[in-house]
Records
---
Amino acid sequence: MSDEPQSWAPRDSSGAGASSGNHRPTASGEQPGTNPGKPGKPGKPGKKARPRRTGWRRAIPTWRMTLGTLLGLVVLLGAGVFAAYRLVDIPAANASATAQSNVYLYSDGSVIARDGDVNREKVKLSQVPPTVQHAVLAAEDRDFYSDDRAVDVKAMLRAGWNTVTGKGKQGGSTITQQYVKNYYLGQERTVLRKAKEAIIAVKLNREETKDQIFEGYLNTSYFGRNAYGIQAAAQAYYGKNVEELTTAEGAYLASLLNAPSAYDVVAHPDNRPAAQRRWNYVLGGMVKERWLTAAERATTRFPTPGEAKPSNGLSGQRGYIVQAVEDYLNRRGILDAKTLATGGYRITTTLDKAKQDAFVKAVADNVTAKTSSNRAADRNVRVGGASIVPETGKVVALYGGIDYTKQYVSNATRRDYQVGSVFKPFVLTSAVVNDSTTQDGRRITPNTVYDGTNKRTVVGVQGSTDYAPANEDDVDYGDITVRIATDKSVNSVYAQMAQDVGPAKVRETAIALGIPADTPDLTAAPSIALGTANASVLDMAEAYATLADHGRHGRYVLVEKVTKDGAEIELPERTTEQAVSREAADTTTAVLRSVVEGGTGTAAQTVGRPAVGKTGTAEEDRAAWFAGYTPDLASVVAVMGQNPDTGAQTPLYGALGLPRVNGGGVPAETWAAYTEAALRSSPVQEFDLRTAPGSDEGDELLVDENADGGTDPSSSSDPDTSPDTSPDATPGTTPDGSAPPTPGTNTGGTDEGSVSAPDGIGDGDGDGNG
């Protein structure tokens, strides 16, 4: 030990030193009772004293309080999950695993059809080809075998968020969860059902193997066409057992699991693009997961399924009606296909049994009775029809085809045939709505004179459009009024009028009247006037019903009531709006009246009451239409040509023993026969019209009898009835500037000319009707 003197005082055993707070030696210059490096801060060595919280800070929880609360919630949640896991058992199979039939009723409560027993046939997983299994996994849950989790929490949260934010309903479920929902629970979308689904899925995942769960899923999933399970689907779509399915077919069936009604390309031909995209997605997933080589994928072609073979319980019109009702419920967001397929629903439609029977009889008498097994063209004849009450929008009759068990696709709702010149009234309506004028500044009315020369080139603001549509039989009409051009369905006049109004405005008017905006080939071009669009018979009936109801539009109604187990399901309320002005709609009605009185639709006069209508024929006579209405009933009839073997559209030349079938013939006759029978017990109603100024025939003035120029070929040779085309006169007026008179009355004639068009323009070859 050093002998040097100590430099600090000895410990004071009396406690006096303790009072100073000095419990250790102090460094040089350090004050007793302080923390080193923190001068003036008494207390525990190395730590500040916590100040008291004052004012508004007292209302904010500390981090300790927040952390404690969160930990408490986690503990409670964990306890809840544990309790739920212990309390919730795997239940017995629910009733939907053996779904009931749905019952479809006429408006009077009489039965239309029952959709039959559920089509299901269980198979072993070993019977399903590996490529088909892989297709289903690629479509629904690619990590099913590699992931031990029965519940994908992230996917569930993502799906819930997408649903809440309006990106569409999504399940976010694994295959195990979907199997639990299909077999043990139900299809309702509730938080409680989803929670039970997750718990049962976890338990099931512990008690059954992946193969057992996947086998159950394949046997309980719904594929559309009333097919439950992969075996039933293989038969329903391809007429073969599951063991015989190809990779391409398996990928298509896997696509259906997402939305069966949206991807059936046979029931709904317009679904093909969406179905092919989904099919490509499945095959792409198989390649990504190395279940299919890129070379095999490159040689795989889309496997169009065969037509369905429904039970005899859906024969005749019954199957078409069931199909239309299912579509209606699905598209209106009332019941989706999977939910409806669980069965047990009683669905009361708006269909009137007497009117439905009248439509069937009218087609039988005017079409079917005229077919012959000795004429090859008669094999191709198809008929579609629809009838709507304008005031209520109720569909009271629907004709889909000869027999649902023989011809699966409904001709009433398909959207793959041109509507022809039944579209022309929408051009006139649009002209009045938009107060449109001709290229030389004349306001367009039924009495406006146009050049009806055959293959006359349509002229726009920038000059020639290079579009020159042909008239029926290449007839030159010369200068004629819009009224006469409507009577005779003159293509050259209406194409020019569509250009004058503006093709985009014509399209807007058609949509406002009820033509769906996504109608194929509803293109804003001059050819839109000639009916290049592929609207359905039901679409056209809705639009004509809007004209009949003085321009008020509301979506058609097909279902009045839906119940299950005594509980009624809420249906959306129909609303109406003034889609076009009453003057515009009524002006069109007034012009269409002359089509029936002396134009191409004179065959409709046999209805025996005030009626209006328009004829139309598609390119190459592949379809012939008549659309018309009385004040209280709007109906459309279309006769179509389709090869029963290939499904290709065919001309109607020679069908029904006629050189050709046009809208003014068989369709108009069928329309008149149906409408007469449907309204036989109803009082005759007259049209109550308020036409736009200058629209009535009485507004026309006699032209100068000395004027010369082209005349309507069917008009009187009296010069007093010929429109003035003299050099001294303003085009479309008499020398004093007034409107010219209507040329002589049309006493009949055939339908209109070609509508075919590259890029929606038209080829003007005159070989078909517009």
---
Amino acid sequence: MTQRAHIDTGGPEPDSTGAPIDAGAELDPVHPAPPPGKADKGCGEASDKGGGGRRAGLTTAEVAERVARGEVNDVPVRSSRSAADIVRANVFTRFNLIIGVLWVIMMFVAPFQDTAFGYVILANTGIGIIQELRAKKTLDNLAVIGEAKPTVRRDGRAAEISTSEIVLGDLIEIGPGDKIVVDGTCAEAESLEIDESLLTGEADPVLKKPGDIVMSGSFVVAGGGAFTATKVGREAYAAQLAEEASRFTLVHSELRSGISTILKYVTWLMIPTSIGLVISQLVVKDDNFKESIAYTVGGIVPMIPEGLVLLTSVAFAIGVIRLGRKQCLVQELPAIEGLARVDTVCLDKTGTLTEGGMDVTELRMLNGSDETYVRKVLGALGESDPRPNASLQAIIDAYPDSEEWRCTESLPFSSARKYSGASFSEGNGESSTWLLGAPDVLLPDSDPALDDIEALNQQGLRVLLLARADKELDDAAVADGAAAQALVVLEQRLRPDAADTLRYFEEQDVKAKVISGDNAVSVGAVAGKLNLPGADRTVDARTLPEDQAEMAKVLDENAVFGRVTPQQKRDMVGAMQSKGHTVAMTGDGVNDVLALKDADIGVSMGSGSEATRAVAQIVLLNNSFATLPSVVAEGRRVIGNITRVATLFLVKTVYSVLIALLVVCTQVEYLFLPRHLTLLSTLTIGVPAFFLALAPNKERAKPHFVRRVMRYAIPGGAVAAVATFSTYLLARAHYSGAGAREAETSAATLTLFLIAMWVLAIIARPYTWWRICLIGAMGAGFLLVMVVPWLQDFFKLKLVGTTMPWSAVAIAVAAAALIEFVFRWVDRKFPA
């Protein structure tokens, strides 16, 4: 074909009667429609240019005046934290302060092997900083307005400038693919279509005419033109959303807050304990000053679960790496934990459950029309549009073009008339005029086909009517008397993985809520095809109560919501949170920004707006909703395992505090040097906990982290402390002379090691071959230290005689049996 008509058959989503619904009518009432019947003359030629010819734009003097008045596009600051903020937040923590002070002290009074505990600071801080800087680097240039270089016409000449240089009143040229960077009024238009889906949630482009409003955050999908900037900087719509979302907030982490709570109490315990230890070790016993300080620090350091802090960061970081391989970017480490705790996930239909494309599912003939001829008509209509939308692209894919047909005139789609059209020379001397659009507009109210169309719409199908007109396209009454020829039934293309993903959430007891700006019936039909529970109960968001409690009740009872405005999305998230739900929100448009920010976890599609990617904690770079189960599973693995191994660390905290108090009360020398507890922590906690934290775990994350772990840690630590201190007192009575203190410490260390190994054996259940090997390897490591001479000297550990070592073993066995009994009693008495 030599000429091409501009036909827009898609329009906005049809309502239950088959008529496309004007997206702007509900969400943006500033899109005046062109008068019915106004046709473009000549296919592909512009007939909707702004009057007055090409405009010159502002003069240099006018630009200078506006700059002087401050009428410039001062884009809001980015919503991500600066590198300095990231470093500061990771370095200046309570944990680093406590360990850091003790580390510095030990550097002056003790050999290297007693300062190893301090290097945990470097590892923990480094992991946090590197991960957050990595995420920041990936998204550093993502802000709501982006780094677009708009073309501005000034003094009659067009030139590219930075978005920050735009002033009020500038004339900005736009073409296919260009982003609208400020709000304005359309001044020139040539078949200009703008996609406002990121603002309104509507998937279909809007045809713009001179005088129409264009808004920042939207972009051009077809045609071209120019618009005059009427709102710049913080006045612009998208910028206002970004401004409100610009305050960076870290996702809540119960693990981190729980550990912080434990550290807070440990800090208060450390103050009197440290004073008591200093007095008992230095004043009462009058020992060597440096050695007294070393033993004092040796009593304080194990109170701090420093390994738990490091392991949490390592587990999160490894989870981030694993998800990164699946094209999932985690911007904040605790976001993995957050999604593992989610019990409600809010989804959009377009782009999440459905793909951008559509398919023709049926061509239904009307009034005895010839199907072969109708297919030729549809092929010609499809080929006549140089920029087909999803609906027309489906027709193009289904019906090839007939080369002998030539377009002579076209009528673009308008939301006012709800149809488009074209006239053709058929190649055999015949001419014909065709209309394609909403059946309820092109058919009389009494037509029996409307009942069938209603049934199709209830199934979520889009129905277009092909009709032959006997009037000219520029006749305002061209649709009157048009003869219906066929119904074109279209279906949105479902994501192949959407059903499996929804099924996964259902199995994991996570409620899925579909929240869309599209027609509620259509959204419900799509959800029904994916077997979403509750898809048969759809709610038009315009009927939702404003009261938060009433809204929350409706949200709990239903799963599918249509015609949802951006503010309502935010209100709905708040309403669900008010009922104690942990909410994840997925989105890709500027209209989702505030809801994403308010949700417990925000998940953005990689192809979405820069604003959503900047405020979301998780970005699906491959735009695949099917990645979410992997994120949830990874989160559950991390949280379940950390909760499990945290018991190991906190048992150590409890027995360290109690041993220190026993030392102060009895006025004896402290049992261990820091190197002794470093060895014990490494073999019974650090190394095994690392492997246990990476093991598979599908258990759903449960709340009350501190309570869950302390119910084991307190009795377990108390038994370990009493048993170890008893062994130490027996050893003090048994040994005397040179080397006695080292022998006493070695006996106590043996008892504590065996008890800690039994706690590890309990935590490692159920046993697998690698868990048994892990426990065996840790035992072999301790045995190696006790029999190799240079390791004995390095750690100052040497068992003397046989009586006391076997007594230490007997005490440890009795303590292990008591711990086994206590843990089982706790399980029955205080279930999680």
---
Amino acid sequence: MIPGKDTTVEKVDSQKEKFGSFALFDIEHFLRRVLRNWYWFVLMLFIGYGISWVYSKYYAQNIYASNLSLSISNNTSSYFTPNQSINFIWGQGGNQDGVYLKKMLLSRTHNEFLVKELDLFVNYSTKGVIKSTYLDKDDSPVFLQVDRKHGQQINYPITLVPKSANTYEVVLPEDGQSTSLYSYDSEGFLNINPFERPANKTIKVGEWYTSPNLRFRLIKNYIEPKIKLSNIIVNLSTVNQSVNDIVSTIGVEFDKEINTIMIITKKGYNLNSTVNFLNMSVSQLQKRRLADKITVDKNTDVYLKDNLDKIRKKLDSSANVLNYMKTTEKLYDIKDRDEKSLTQIKDLEAKKADIESKISSLNQIKQSLEAQNFEKMISTSAAGFQDGLFSASVSELKALYLKRREMALIYKPNSEPMKEINRLIDEAKVSSNGALRNYYTGYYSEINKINQKVGDANAELATYPEKQRRYLDAERGYNMIEATYNSLLGRQNDTQMRMAANQSDISVIDPAKNVGQPPIGPNVQATKASIIGGLLILPLLFILIGELLDSKIRNIKELLNATKIPLLGVIGNNNHENMLTVLDQPKSSVSEAFRGIRANVRFLSGENGGSKVILVTSSIGGEGKTYVSINLASVLGLSDKKTILLGMDLRKPKIFGDFKIDNKYGISNYLTGEVEMSQIINKTRIPNLDVATSGPIPPNPSELLMSERNIKFIEDLKKQYDFIIIDSPPVGLVADSYELMKYSDANIYVVRHEYTEKYMLKMITEKYHNNEISHLGLVYNDYNTKQGYGYGYGYGYGYGYGYGYFDEDKNYKEPLLIRIRNKVQSIFNKK
């Protein structure tokens, strides 16, 4: 049975619509195409590996991280160092000191102090053949000290080349000189006149180097560096840029189990730099917090002492009044005293006196805040509260006022920087004043409640005589003053105890150390995988795009599924110098393929006896229509069947050249009546094969082919020959072949591998399934046999499948994948 021919299935309309429609994407052909282009993937793999190796060795800048853990104690007295363990009377609580300390570590004020104090705006590196390596300050044999009053060009690499133990050559870039210089004194930019590139100069350690855009000197590092450097590259940056770079690389987290323990992380390109910075940062923070605590405690002690002196005078005066009333008016022994009410009033008024004392302290804090007199601020503990958020806002406000005073020397009052700093100050004021208002509201609310309770208790004492009530009032006044005095005295004792045992509330648990930590980034392995994967995707992407845009027929299975037209045979690639493959290479696989087509054509036309008219056509020229016609006719002639080959493609004659026949007279001459039939029939070297060439190109080929004379011509030939092979015009260009098919017994449609467009098959497929054409079969021509066929239709139809049977097999070498497959199969098939 002919492959693909199925006469038992009835065609319904829905099926007919699908005929001739090809899938948008052929996964099988795509995979075959990928395998055929394996060398591109291997090439990309090697290129990707090479690029990733160069990247990891010469370009990847390792990022390191070091950690420092510290503990925050709970003996803090200053709102500049707020207590983390206080639960506030208004429901506030939590790790307030930890939050404040985190803000301090990440604050501009703290890090700007470090940048200026430690010259962190000077960055050191060294450059090898390709890669630059960042250095810690201590890795450099010399330090660069800038003249802060002189303008300096920033982001301008200064190369120091060692010449001797204490001599260095200063090499500046060939270009890039800027007239906009940065002043570390005013932290602003200034402009100078254009200048030429400063020449290279050799200077000694301690000697000043001066140029229009730089002024610095070298200071010897008395710590012997561990590595010897051939060059030191120094880059200067602005204070603001340095602070921003530092803050962006600091991370602060709290221990999950103990929230008073902080873990501070610093990232950077040099591990020693991160270690040194963390230790210096925490050391400076400890000193500043201790100084803040001492200052605030001293202010608080002075404030409490002054108030105690004032209260002591009031207490003495009140005691004198009370003693006078006892001695002169004999009121020390009042009968029927309501001791319960009196005790209640005494306790309430003692609480009131304590709150009023706190309000007085709160007033002092507010006045200092409004007067910007931060150096005279007292502790919030004197006002009876500890609020980390309030303390942070006051600390921020103090830093902003200081910053504004510095900026006022540089900027005009209405400039944008000044407007921005004023806006930040207003926000900090709102935050701090809002917190104070909350405490005022709370204190006055408590006093109102106490007054109400005291009023209720006084109503019970209204029955006492006037003199006794005056004595009781004097006694209550004394008790209130005494309670205030005791409250202040207690707070003074607490303050003095803190001052006596004052120490930083920050204790380092684990300092930052260089213990050879591996880099945390970049993820070199992931980068390598991305580079290699990206390059491997490139050929895959190109193949995929090519596959989606490809409209050529490349897959036999897809062709048969789309057309449902029987396949008569597959013709391999023809490497012969002419079209006479069957005659010149009878033992080739191509010749054997034509013999298979000869057998299948009999099934296509049926065995009804008589002569057979076989028409060969295709979509367009170049698909091998004439080649198939010549070789099919040759195969039939060699099988002792009297055969004639008719060149009826009158527009493009071809047959005569391969058979070395004169095309002076042909079918076109006969159809116009110029010559007789015998004059156009030519003998060939095959006894049973004759050829009638097309003849000269006529002006009206369609009319000639459709004429009654041509029909009679075919009928006359059927009386003389067993097979008539018609090489007809392509149906994709002209309709002549469709008319000739009415008189043929079998029709062969030639499809060329990777040449025929898919859309060209739609018309012939529709006509076949609409029963407008019958006895139609496909011949797949010029198939690349090295791809393998493997669909099981007839013979293998390709080199390497005969294993010595065909002539081509002697030069055939199986592909590597096929050889590997066969080897594996032979191993598993061993018994």
---
Amino acid sequence: MIAEPDGPEDRLRRFATIWSRAVFPVTSTSSTRPEFEEHLLPLARRLSRALLARAFDADEGRAVGAALVDAHCTDPEALSRTLDCVDAYLVLYCGGDGDQEDLRARSARLQHAMAAGFAQALRERTLAEQEAIAQAALRAQGVVAQALHATEARFRAVFEGAAIGIGMADLDGNILQVNGALLRMFGVSEQTMRTRNVREWTHPDDAPQTWRLYDELVRGEREHYHVEKAFYRPDGTVLWTNLTVSLLRDADGSPQYQLALMEDTTERRLLNLRLRYEATHDALTGLPNRTFFFERLEKALGAGKGQRFGLCYLDLDGFKTINDSLGHAAGDRLLVEVADRLQSCATAPGEMVARLGGDEFVALTTGPDTQREVDELATRIMNALLAPISVDGRELTVRGSIGIVEGPAGERSPAEVLRSADITMYRAKSAGGNRFELADPEADARAITRHGLTTALPTALERGEFFIEYQPLVHLGDGSVRGAEALVRWLHPQHGVLGPDRFIPLAEHTGLIVPLGRWVLEQSVRQAREWRELHGGLEAVGPLRINVNLSPCQLTHPGLVQDTVDILERTGIEPDALCLEVTESALIGADDDLLKPLRRLAEMGVDIALDDFGTGYSNLANLRRLPVSILKLDRSFTQSMQQFPADPVDLKIVEGIVSLAHSLDLAVTVEGVETGAQAEQLRILGCDTAQGWYYARPGPPDRLHELALADATG
């Protein structure tokens, strides 16, 4: 197959070409550079697959690092150039359209794995060389009795010509011989080296078993041992080595000498430390990143009995506005300053600050008394953000919302703790921001339930989990049923029947309210047609009207009018059978563009009701410009009428609203009627229709038919 110009294969080959040009000059291969490039191409392909894989596999990176050693790229400079090339070009040529920040993090982890694989392969190769040298030394020692002069020459050639450091000492640790490589590693003369004793070379980073193994060897209890060990040079710098010490015995098998083979791993160790730092720290702020934070959090949560933890999850308030208005460069400078301030807040033992990404930071404290310490830490963070931050000559005020989780170790996983902190942080943000809140298990449960409902909403409509109940609209003058309000319900598989207050806000937030509202409208209009067909021969019943609620999202949807027309035409019902209810708050300050769809529907004959009237603090004069024919009075004005005597102020307000509505040729419907006294008082005040539990609770469509039929025949 021929790859398309500038396709993935072309970009992969470009990466392999750049890689081969960088590394070829420091290799020991007999291949030409084009041949070397063909050898690197499958390694580049493995790196590309590992970069884009669904699950990150560090073994791929380690395998590529080991393959470099197999390709004779054993010079440390070859690894350094390889890592520089991967860091600069792997994401550019092989990253595709993925999340760049995530790809860069993966690239850093791949580099770390490659360095580890390279180091392991080189170490195994060196160990093989060391073993060969040790065997040669042992063979030479055995042949001494037979041909001392020939063996001495052979051993001296190996001893002096080896690239690794070699030293021989007696069993008391006195140094007898060293080669040039060892002298260069320590930076001392042979005379100085021979004045040293092996036991003087202790270092604070020595592994606990290092000197135990040494003692066992000089006592003849083991033949050799291998450790990673650090040595101090005379200038104070540290030399890190892979150290192999072997025991040499005399012809009778008694221990006689110790032979040390040292490989200098200082540069490789520093490189590994640098890669580890880059893999666990945020490139912009220098703070520990998500990976490092989770390691620390997991360790804190796994601490012993009596230990506790406290976590502050910080999100900056309004950071997106700064990014959008001043640019991402200014936003980055702001984040760096915020990171510095946060770092100064977590200086006590057991405290750390990390950046999770974007403008999200976390602060962790551990110990036996985190209940007090985490509150103090959150307070320090809030105080640290008080002073404005200067960016490009502008003084920017920065505020943040913090969610706090505190508790004993060993009860929750890191993911559960961070989820609780995230939920709590958004609770603080919803309360106005610039504050911190403590985690509340009940609030967490509600948030998790909301999230579950949100994710289940799209498929719930497809599975037919929604149904509609109808609450009668009764004429206050004669008590007849004039129609019903359609109220959607969700029959959830786990939570049972949910009212609209549980899922309508979620549907509006996700945009599902448009298809859900369209479904409710069509089902309700079809039901209205069935009612009219059933009641066609009953003049006393009259045509029943269906009231359907419209959300603010539906009002702004461009297909509202056409969807309504199509539904009315498909069902074959007249527009006067439909009333669309719109909340007063949705129309406060509405411009002509928002009112235009409602005006078109009103001109067609669809009634428009202004729902929850009296709660939106709107100007009553606006009623004249709204295309409404019905006011639905909010129940807060009529609740006092359930008792006798009613609040005279409420009576006057309702009387005034009814008088105003009738003067504008608007009908008045009252919600929440629960007693006969309340219904009678509203009738006296001139209200037209009412609904509430006094008449009937929302129920199936058959109940409304029975109520209407009873009114007609009663």
